[in-house]
TrEMBL record, chains A, B:
Name this polypeptide is given: Pyruvate, phosphate dikinase
Keyword annotations from UniProtKB, A to Z: Kinase, Magnesium, Metal-binding, Pyruvate, Transferase
Top-level EC class as recorded in UniProt: transferase
Function recorded in the entry: Catalyzes the reversible phosphorylation of pyruvate and phosphate.
Lineage: Bacteria, Pseudomonadati, Pseudomonadota, Alphaproteobacteria, Rhodobacterales
Gene3D superfamilies the record matches: ATP-grasp fold, A domain, ATP-grasp fold, B domain, Phosphoenolpyruvate-binding domains, Phosphohistidine domain, Pyruvate Phosphate Dikinase, domain 2
Entry-linked InterPro entries: ATP_grasp_subdomain_1, PEP-util_enz_mobile_dom, PEP_util_C, Phosphohistidine_dom_sf, Pyruvate_phosphate_dikinase, Pyrv/PenolPyrv_kinase-like_dom, Pyrv_kinase-like_dom_sf
Length: 856, 856
C-alpha cells in the first residue's frame, strides 16, 4: 500500500514515488536507467524540467491493479502543468512502452492555451494527446483516425468525436484520471508477451522491472523560438566528432527526426538552415550542455532538448547508439580526452564486435538480396562471377576477373582454384570441411553446407530455393560472416585497421596477462599474424603444404610405395620444398616461436576421389587403374576423424615425420644465419598414449642429432604434444615428462568428448541450441563443464609431472572470449587462434585481466 | 664360491646342491618345479631313485664358468651308478635343455655291464650317451652319426671313432668330467637367445632361473622284465578317466612314446599287448602309485617310470598336458573326488579357454589349409558352399545346403541372406561393422576385413592370395574364432555343454558377487542367454529389428516423410511388430530384467547404397529417383560414429522413441498378464548432456501414462542412460538424478576416449600392440587407465548424486575377465556381454570373488 504523504519533503522519504532531486534515493536497479540519468543531469544543474520517478515496485503494483498515490505525484507539479510519462527500464536497451505526452490537456486547457500560444498550437497539443491516449490507453485501432484529414481545431474536434464513437465515453477531462490510466496502461504493456520476449532476447532477466518517469512538459510550441530536437557530438557510424541531430520549430518529442527537409540542422551546414543560425545563443548553450554531459557522464550522449522562447531545456540524455567501429573510436577518444582511463576504454569495446572491423563486409545499410543461408565458414564478404571448376577459376584470375568458386564440396584438386578465387561456396561440409579449413587459411570468405541450393556443377547451373538460376559468369556475393549468399553486388564496407584500432590494442596489450599466438599455415597467414601482433605461431598445420599440385603427386607416389626405403626416397623430393616452407615462416616471424604440427590427416585425403582422377593417377604411376581403385577403396575409412592419422601415421609410416623433422631443422639453421636464432616447436598430433610420444621423440631426436652433425652446428628445439583426445588429458601426467609443451586442440577434443563430429553436427546443432540441450554450440564456445574439466585435469596433471611445461590452447576456441577466460583461469601460457581473431583475443584477454584485477 | 662339504649331512646344509630328502630345503622358486615335485614324491615314500638338486643360483654360476663341487654331488651316489641330468625350471611350461642319460658310461663300465646285462644292452646305453654328449655337449652336428648303420657294439665303436674324428679328442672316460661338461652345457643352453625368447613367450620373466636335477639311472635294460614308460589316468583330449600311456621293454627315457606298435599298452587293450598282461604286479603297483600321486599332489599327473626286473621305479611326475575341455573335466572330477574344494576347481579353469567349449570348432588335430587370416568377428566354425548374394543364400538354404555368404561388405539388404547362411565372409569392415554385429547377433561364424583376398562379387569369384580361385558352390570353412578362412572341410569338434560344465558353473555362481547379463537382440539370443543362465538382458539393441525387409521399407518411408505427423503415421505401422518383438523377449526372459536401448544408428544406414536399390526405393515411394539420390546424399555423414544418431535422433525426430516406448509398454502389460510381472528397462543411447535425458524422459513418461490410462492398468518401468561419451561420464552427477541406471557402453566410450574408430583401427592395431604402444587392444581388454578412469569418475559421480543408481557395463568388454575385474572393483552391479560369453563372464567373476576373498 502506498503511504499517503503530506508534502514534498515527506514524498522524498517514499523511495517508490520520488521527485528527482540531487539527493533523492534513485538508482538504476530500482527506478531504471532513465531516472538515474535524469538525476545525474539534475546534479549537473542542467535545465531539466521537474520530474517524478516511480520505482519498479510501484509500477509493478500499478500493473497489478493498485491505484497510485496521485496526490503524492501531483503535488510536485504546478496544477496547470502538462505532463509526460516515459519508461525507465534498468538497461535502456531493454525497451519499454512508448512515451505519452501532454497529459492534462482537456477542453478547458485547450481554451486557455489557445489564448497564450494560439489555437493552432494548442489544438496540436491536444490532438497529439487524444490520439496517443486512444491508441495506447483505450487500445483503439490507430486507423480510427485515418479518415480525419483536417488538422487544427477541426481535426481535434473530429478526433474527439471518433474517440467517443468508439468508446461510448467522453474523452476524460481530469488530469489525475488521465495520468492514472496512462500509468496503468504503460505498466501493463511491460508484462505483455511480445515485450517480454523482445527484452529477453536482449539479455534482460525474466523478472526485469520497469520504472516510469513523470515529467513536466515544456511544450515546444508557442511564442518566440520554440521547438524540440536531439543532438549528439559524434557520427554514429564512424565515431568521428561531428555535431549531428535535427531540430524542428514548433514541435514536441522526437518529431524533428521524422520531419525530413523541414527539420533544421544543428550546426551551420551547406545543405540547409541550422539552429546555429536561427538561435545562436540557444545553440551555444546546448553545445555546452552536451559537452558537459559527455564529460561528466563519461559517455557520448544523445541530448533530447526543447527550446522554449529561446531558452534551452534538457529533457533527457540517452547513450548514443553506435556501430562497432564507432564504439571503438568513441571509447578511444573518451580516453584520449582523459574523461575515462584507457583501461575503461578497453573494457567498453565488445571483442565479438571487433571482428566486423577486421574484414571487408557488406555495408550495414545495403539492400541484401538473400538467396540462401549456409554455414559461414570463413568471415568477410566478396563479390565475383561464379565459376564451377578450379580451371575456370584460374582462367578467370588470369583475366583479372574476381570469381567465386562454386563446388558441391572441395578436395585437394580444387586448392589451386581456391587460390585464384575471391570466395568459395559449397553445397556440403561443415566448419572443418576441406573448403572451410582452406578458406580460413587463405582468408577467403567461404560458405559451406549451402544445401538448400541446387548444385548442378556438371551442367554449370546453380539454383536458388526460390527458383532463380545462376550460370557461369553471373555475379554473386558471398558473406562468409553471416553465411548469406547474395545475388548481385551490394555496397561494401572496407576493413579498418586505423590508428584508433592500434591505440586501443596498445592499451589492451599493456593489461593482458596471457599470450596470444596465431594459427598460421602459410606465409600470408604468418604475415597477417605479424600485422596483428600475434606473439608467435601457435599452430602451423603442415598438411596443406602437400595439396599443391606439384607436391600432391609426390604424396601419392609415397602412398603407393611398397617399402620404407621406397617411401623415404619419394619423400626426399619433398624435403627441399618443406624446408623452404618452414624457412619462409621463420623469416617472417623473426625469431618468434613457431609451433609446427607434424603431418596429421589420413593419407586417403590425398588420393583422387573421382574416376578420372584415379585414371590420371594410374597413368602417372604406370599402374593398372584397378590397382589404384583398389588402393583408394582399401584406404577409405568409416570414421576418418577417428582413423589412421596423426601420430598413428607417425608410428606406422615414420618416414613422413622423419622428412618433416629434417626440413624443420635444416630451415632452423638456415633462418638463424640471417636473423634472430629460431627455436622451432615440433608438435605431435592425436596422441593417446605416452609410448607414441616416446617412439616419435626418439626418431626426431636422432634426426636433430644428424642435422646438427652434418651442418656442424648445434640448435635448440622444443618437442610437444597436441592434446586432443580425452585419454591424453587424463594421462597428461605420464605424457608431460617427455614434452616441453602441451597444446590442447579443443576442436577435436570437443568432438571426442561429446562424441560429436563437427562436420555432421550442423544438421541438428541449431535445433539443439534452440531447445537448450546445449546452452551454446560447443564448437564456438568451449564447453566449460565437460571439455573444460578435461582441460583442467590435463593442465593439473601435466604440471604436476613437469612444472615448467608450457600450456596452451590452439584451435578455433582460442579466439573466443568466453573460452579465453577458461584458459586464463587455468593459468595457460597462451592461446592460439586464426590470425584474424588475434585482435579479438588480445582485447578479450585484456578485459579478463582488468576484470580480475577489479575482483570481477 | 661353493663350500667344500664333508659328508651327506653337511651337504644338506648347502641349499644350492642338495640331496632330495623329505626335509631338504627345496622349493620351486629356488630349485625349480621338477625338483620340488620329486621331493613330494619322496615324501610320499615312492620308489624314486636318489636325486641331487642344483639351485638356480648354482646353475647360474656354472653357466658363468664356475666349476661345481663335484665331490659334494658324487658322494651322494654309488660310485658305479650311472646318472642322468634333467632341467628343472620354476614353471615346467617354460621348457629347458633336453635331458642327458647314462652319464658315467665309459669303456670300462661297458665291459662290466656287458657281463651283467649282455653286450647288446650295455652298448645301447653307451651309444645313447655318446651320441647325446656329442650333440649337446661337444656341439657336433647330429648328422655326424647318420652314416652309422650298425648297432650294438659295432655301432658303438663307429660312434666313438666319429666322435674322435670330429673333436680330435678321445671320448671322456671320467664320470666327474662327463658330469661337469653336461652341467655346464645345460646351464649355458638356458641363456641362449632362442631358449629365452621361447620361454618369455610363455610368460617367463627375463631373469627366470634354471635348476638341474641329477638322478641315479635305473637302466630299464637288463635281466628280467625291464623297460620304461609313462602313464596317466585320464584322456588328455576329453579329461575322461582312462589309463593311457605306453611302455616299452628294454628301453630308457621316453622311448616308449616314439616306439609305435612295438610299445605296449598299459591296461588290457583289444588293440594289442599290455603291461597289465606282461607284468600284472608291476602294473598294479604303478596304478596305485599314480592314484596316490593324483590324490596327494591334487592334480592329474603323468608318471614317468622304469621297471627293473619287475620292480617299479618312479622317475618323475609331470602335470598332464590337456585340452581346454579336459582341463575343465579334470578340475571338476578332482573336486567331486574331494581331492580339491570346488572353489579351487573354479580357479583352475581358464575363462579365456572356456570359449572354445561353447562353439563348434575346427578339430585341433585337423589339417588346416589356410587361405588367409581376416578379423574373427564372431566365433565358431562352419563349413559350406560359397554364395555371393543374399538371394543365392536363400535359395541354397531352401535346398537344405549349408552356404557361406561372401560379400565385400554387408548392408541391411543382406540380412535375410545372413539368416540363411551358416557363416559370413567380407572383404571390408572391423569388429563393429554391420556384418560383425549381425553375425554375432545371429551366433553366425563371421570373418570380416579379409582384405588380402580378392572379392569379385559381380563375377562371383573369390581369389586367395596364393592365386587359388573359388566360385559359387566351392566349399570353404570359416573359423570365426581364429579369423582363418580354410579351403575344404576339416574335421570339426562340436560344442559341449555337458553335466561337467553345468557343475562347474554352479560352483562358480555360488561364489560370484557381480551379476552377469547378456546382450540379446533377438528371441534366439534371448534363448541362448537363458540357456547360459544370464541374469537378464543388459542390452537389447533395437535397430536390428528394422532391418527385416518388410520393416525396412517402412523405415524408409518414415525417413522420407516431411512432417512429424507424417512420420508418426508411418511408424504406427511398425508398432505392432515392435510390440511383438518385445513381448517375445519378455516371455522368454520370464520376468527377468530386460534393458532395451532405444533406436541408436544414423538413419542413413537404412537407405539403399546401390543405384538399383535407390531406383527401387524411388518406385516404391513414387518419387523421382533424383530425389532419392539427393536425400541419400544429403544424409551421408563424414563420421557416422559421431553423427546424427542415438539420443540426437530422440530429440530431433522424437516420433521413433515415442513409437518404441509405446511398443515396450504395451508388450509389458501383455507379457505381465500370463507370467511374472515385467519391469522393462528403457535406455537412452549416446547422451552427452543432461537436458537430452530430461527431454526424452518427459516424452517417455507421457507415453507410459497414456498406455496405463488406455489399458486401465499401472505398470513400473526403469529409465536409464547408456554412458558412452566421455562427457556423460564427467557429468554423471547431473545426469544420474533423472535415471534409475547408468550402463557404460565401453565400445563407444573407448572409441571416443582414444579418438579411435574400432572399424578403422584394425589396419594398425596389431602393429601398435606389437610395438607396445598399447599394451593390449583396448577394444578387447578395457583400458584401465583412460577409459577406466572415466568409468570410475562416472560411477562415483553418479552414485554421489543418486546412491541407489544401478551401475553396469554393456558391450564386448563385459565378457572379458580383465575388464570384469575393473567393473567389480568399481562396485558395479552387473556386466552384460554377448550370450556366448556369459559362461566365461560367470567363471571369471567367480574367480575374482574367490581371489579377493583370499586377499589376492
Amino acid at each position: 500500500m502506498l503511504r499517503r504523504n503530506q508534502k514534498g519533503a515527506a514524498v522524498q522519504n517514499n523511495p517508490h514515488t520520488t521527485l528527482i532531486t540531487p539527493d533523492a534515493p534513485v538508482a538504476a536497479n530500482t527506478h531504471g536507467g532513465r531516472a538515474k540519468c535524469l538525476q545525474r543531469l539534475v546534479r549537473l544543474e542542467m535545465p531539466v524540467p521537474r520530474t517524478v520517478a516511480l520505482s519498479f515496485d510501484a509500477v509493478h503494483r500499478i500493473a497489478e491493479g493498485e491505484i497510485p498515490d496521485l496526490t503524492a505525484i501531483l503535488e510536485q507539479f504546478d496544477s496547470a502543468a502538462l505532463l509526460c510519462v516515459r519508461p525507465s527500464s534498468e538497461d535502456p536497451d531493454w525497451g519499454g512502452p512508448g512515451a505519452v505526452l501532454n497529459i492534462g490537456m482537456n477542453d478547458a486547457r485547450y481554451v486557455d492555451l489557445s489564448d497564450t500560444m494560439g489555437a493552432e498550437a494548442a489544438a496540436a497539443l491536444y490532438l497529439r494527446f487524444v490520439q496517443s491516449y486512444a491508441v495506447h490507453v483505450a487500445r483503439l485501432d490507430a486507423d480510427v483516425f485515418d479518415d480525419i484529414e483536417a488538422d487544427g481545431s477541426e481535426g481535434l474536434r473530429q478526433s474527439l468525436r471518433a474517440y467517443e464513437d468508439e468508446t461510448d465515453e467522453a474523452f476524460p477531462q481530469d488530469r489525475g484520471e488521465q495520468l492514472i490510466a496512462v500509468l496503468r496502461s504503460m505498466a501493463r504493456a511491460w508484462d505483455g508477451t511480445s515485450a517480454r520476449l523482445l527484452r529477453q532476447a536482449k539479455g534482460a532477466p525474466a523478472d526485469a522491472g520497469l520504472g516510469l518517469v513523470i515529467q513536466e512538459m515544456i511544450p515546444g510550441v508557442g511564442q518566440g523560438e520554440c521547438g524540440s530536437g536531439v543532438l549528439q557530438l559524434v557520427d554514429i557510424t564512424t565515431g568521428m566528432p561531428q555535431i549531428t541531430g535535427r531540430y524542428l520549430s514548433q514541435s514536441q518529442g522526437r518529431d524533428a527526426l521524422g520531419a525530413g527537409v523541414s527539420a533544421l540542422f544543428l550546426e551551420k551546414d551547406p545543405r540547409g538552415l541550422s539552429l546555429e543560425e536561427v538561435a545562436p545563443k540557444a545553440f551555444a548553450d546546448l553545445k555546452a550542455q552536451a559537452a558537459l554531459m559527455r564529460e561528466k557522464l563519461r559517455e557520448e550522449m544523445q541530448v533530447e532538448f526543447v527550446i522554449e522562447n529561446g531558452h534551452v531545456h534538457i529533457l533527457d540524455g540517452v547513450r548514443v547508439q553506435r556501430s562497432a567501429r564507432a564504439a571503438m573510436r568513441i571509447a578511444v577518444r573518451l580516453a584520449e580526452d582523459e574523461i575515462i582511463p584507457p583501461q575503461e576504454a578497453v573494457m567498453r569495446v565488445d571483442p565479438h564486435a571487433l571482428n566486423e572491423l577486421l574484414h571487408r563486409q557488406v555495408h550495414p545499410e545495403a539492400r541484401r538480396d538473400v538467396l540462401t543461408t549456409g554455414i559461414g565458414a570463413s568471415p568477410g564478404a566478396s563479390t565475383g562471377r561464379i565459376v564451377f571448376t578450379a580451371a575456370e577459376a584460374q582462367a578467370s584470375a588470369a583475366r583479372g576477373e574476381a570469381c567465386i568458386l562454386v563446388r558441391r564440396e572441395t578436395s585437394p584438386e580444387d586448392v589451386r582454384g581456391m587460390h585464384a578465387a575471391v570466395a568459395v561456396l559449397t553445397e556440403k561440409g561443415g566448419m572443418t570441411s576441406h573448403a572451410a579449413v582452406i578458406g580460413r587459411g587463405l582468408g577467403l570468405p567461404c560458405i559451406v553446407g549451402a544445401s538448400e541450393m541446387r548444385f548442378q556443377t556438371k551442367k554449370k547451373i546453380l539454383s536458388a530455393p526460390d527458383g532463380r538460376v545462376f550460370k557461369t559468369g553471373d555475379i554473386l556475393t558471398i558473406d562468409g560472416s553471416s553465411g548469406q549468399v547474395l545475388a548481385g553486388q551490394p555496397a561494401m564496407l572496407e576493413a579498418t585497421l586505423d590508428d584508433c584500432f592500434q591505440t586501443l590494442m596498445g592499451w589492451a596489450d599493456a593489461e593482458r596477462d596471457i599470450e596470444i599466438r596465431a594459427n598460421a599455415d602459410t606465409p600470408a597467414d604468418a604475415q597477417t599474424a605479424r600485422n596483428f601482433q600475434a606473439q608467435g605461431i601457435g599452430l602451423c598445420r603442415t598438411e596443406h603444404m602437400f595439396f599443391d599440385p606439384g607436391r600432391l603427386i609426390v604424396m601419392r607416389e609415397m602412398i603407393f610405395a611398397q617399402t620404407s626405403s621406397g617411401r623415404a626416397a619419394v619423400l626426399e623430393r619433398l624435403l627441399p620444398m618443406q624446408r623452404e616452407d618452414f624457412a619462409q615462416l621463420f623469416r617472417i616471424m623473426e625469431g618468434q616461436p613457431v609451433c609446427i604440427r607434424l603431418f596429421d590427416p589420413p593419407l586417403h585425403e590425398f588420393l583422387p576421389t573421382t574416376r578420372s582422377g584415379q585414371r590420371e593417377l594410374a597413368e602417372a604411376l604406370d599402374l593398372p587403374v584397378s590397382d589404384v581403385e583398389r588402393r583408394v577403396d582399401a584406404m577409405s575409412e568409416y570414421n576418418p576423424m577417428l582413423g589412421m592419422r596423426g601420430v598413428r601415421l607417425g608410428v606406422t609410416v615414420p618416414e613422413i615425420y622423419d622428412m618433416q623433422a629434417r626440413a624443420i631443422f635444416e630451415a632452423t639453421l638456415e633462418a638463424s644465419k640471417n636473423g634472430a636464432p629460431v627455436v622451432p616447436e615440433v608438435m605431435i598430433p592425436l596422441v593417446s598414449a605416452k609410448r607414441e610420444v616416446e617412439l616419435v621423440k626418439s626418431r626426431i631426436d636422432s634426426v636433430a642429432a644428424a642435422v646438427a652433425a652434418e651442418q656442424g652446428q648445434e640448435f635448440e628445439y622444443r618437442l610437444g604434444v597436441m592434446v586432443e583426445t580425452p585419454r591424453a588429458c587424463l594421462r597428461a601426467e605420464e605424457i608431460a615428462p617427455h614434452t616441453a609443451f602441451l597444446s590442447f586442440g579443443t576442436n577435436d577434443l570437443t568432438q571426442m568428448t561429446y562424441g560429436l563430429s563437427r562436420d555432421d553436427a550442423g544438421r541438428f546443432m541449431s535445433a539443439y541450441v534452440r531447445q537448450g540441450v546445449f546452452t551454446e554450440d560447443p564448437f564456438h564456445v568451449l564447453d566449460p563443464d565437460g571439455v573444460g574439466e578435461l582441460l583442467k585435469l590435463g593442465a593439473e596433471r601435466g604440471r604436476a609431472a613437469q612444472p615448467d611445461v608450457t600450456l596452451s590452447v590452439c584451435g578455433e576456441h582460442g579466439g573466443n572470449p568466453e573460452s579465453i577466460a577458461i584458459c586464463r583461469d587455468l593459468g595457460f601460457d597462451y592461446v592460439s587462434c586464426s590470425p584474424f581473431r588475434v585482435p579479438v583475443a588480445r582485447l578479450a584477454a585484456a578485459q579478463l585481466a582488468i576484470s580480475s584485477r577489479l575482483g570481477g
